[in-house]
Amino acid sequence: MTVQLYDTKAQALREFVPLDPGNVTIYVCGPTVQSGPHIGHLRGALSFDILRRWLAHRYGRVTFVRNVTDIDDKVLANATDTEPWWALAYRMELEFTRAYTAIGILPPTYEPRATASIPQMQEIIQRLIDAGHAYAAPSGTGGTDAAGDVYFDVRSWPDYGSLTRQSLDAMEPAADADPRGKRDPRDFALWKGAKPDEPSSAAWESPWGRGRPGWHIECSAMSRRYLGPEFDIHGGGLDLRFPHHENELAQSTAAGDGFARYWVHNGLVTVGAQKMSKSLFNFILAEDVLRERDPLVVRYALAAAHYRSNLDITASSFDEAEAAIARIRTFLERAARTLRDDTDDVRLEAQVPEAFAAALDDDLGVPQALAVLHETIRDGNSALDDGDREAALRAFADVAVMSGVLGIDPLDPQWRSADASAEASALDALVRTMIAQRADARAAKDWASADRIRDAIAAAGIALEDSPDGTHWSLIDG
Ligand SMILES: [Zn+2]
């Protein structure tokens, strides 16, 4: 069984063959930390979290690098007199980390900040200049705005445009720098000379004068520094293909690096079938959705569609995810209660079912994998109804291992917030006391009291289940 991935550059499904099967390497473009995360950021990071988990399941070791772009035009633009760019960048980075952690996105193996790899960026720029693929804007001819800028010479590199299959003639001018110092308006900035109105803390010494890196060179340098000149998978949102990834590919390969062997892009998020935009009031910030919804429900809702499809969020998206999570939780709790001690053993031995593995091997088919999961739950519930202990145990083990691989096991302690678990244990103590009082009343043949206690418990939305080892309670669904 091999993993197939849709390679955006080949525009085809390709068999995934890692350079080193003992260590799969993935680089994903992280956020530009200019403002807080919205659900599109969460969906992108989550797509690669699931890909990483699956490849870790298949291959064992995965080295996963996701950067933080902490220096960029937009970060500088959003800084204020009281909050310098570096403080803003760090505050936003923490917001991203908080939101990622809340929905169970595993921390990367490493998370480099662009400002910590400036010498590595300069080294690639120098190699490009030496190879004739980049040039410093001539001083004097470009006016002061262009002084100190270094551009990639797109006409020197015949492969430019190969990621998005565009010919140079069809491309728009690059909008990232004043065109006056450029040989061609489509040349893009590798290094930006310091401007008088920018803070001195946002400029570094370089052979071409004080300045800061262009956005694209950041990822070429960080991926090379941590994963080597050639690595397995480069990921990011579909909106990053051009110009960002096209430019990364051009400058890394023109500098002599093998660079990414597979390009994987996730689809974007729309809200009510429209692109998120502040003016349409349909902009969903991560902090808002995480305040209103259980983080596990948010994870499920954002993971349930195929990663390459555009995901449309509507009012019912989270309700459906909530119902799905409740089904998984109810089954696992019911099975654990009924099957008791045996469940620990089968959890340890469990393998993912073949149909589930086949779905994820096929370009990370999460929707198909979830269908297998829910079908197993249906079978498991039937087995419990029929008292078929063996079949129920098998279903329990399968559901536990599948939901674990996808990071959506509702019984995993990570989903228990401190508040919720304190509330749950307080409620458990109260209900157990009432159950004991009811048992005492029945033992004393005080049927009126026993019924009153039972009715009070039911009125609170709690179901009781009598079994040979005592009475258990659970919240009534819905
Ligand atoms: Zn990038």
Protein model, in words:
The protein has 478 residues and is α/β, with parallel strands linked by helices. The protein contains 15 helices and 15 strands. The chain has helices at 39-59, 73-78, 85-102, 118-130, 215-227, 241-254, 286-292, 295-303, 315-339, 342-349, 354-361, 366-386, 389-405, 418-443, 447-459; strands at residues 4-7, 12-15, 24-28, 62-66, 134-136, 150-152, 188-193, 211-213, 230-237, 259-266, 269-271, 274-275, 311-313, 462-467, 470-475. The strands form five sheets. The chain has a four-stranded parallel β-sheet, with helices on both faces. Strands 5-6-7-8 form a four-stranded antiparallel β-sheet. Strands 12-11-13 form a three-stranded mixed β-sheet. A hairpin with a 2-residue loop joins strand 11 and strand 12. The chain starts with a strand and ends with a strand. The mean pLDDT is 93.
Mean pLDDT: 93
Bound molecules: zinc ion
Question: Kindly, what is the distance between the CA atoms of the first and last residues, rounded to a whole number of angstroms?
Answer: 40 Å
DSSP summary: helix tally: 15
Give the spatial strand order of the biggest sheet: 4-3-9-10
Overall shape: it is: elongated
How many E-type strands?
Answer: 15
Q: What radius of gyration results from the CA coordinates?
A: 27 Å
Largest sheet: 4 strands, parallel
Low-confidence stretches: none
Quick take:
This protein is an alpha/beta fold and 478 residues long. The chain has helices spanning 39-59, 73-78, 85-102, 118-130, 215-227, 241-254, 286-292, 295-303, 315-339, 342-349, 354-361, 366-386, 389-405, 418-443, 447-459, and strands at 4-7, 12-15, 24-28, 62-66, 134-136, 150-152, 188-193, 211-213, 230-237, 259-266, 269-271, 274-275, 311-313, 462-467, 470-475. Helix content is 46%, strand content 14%.
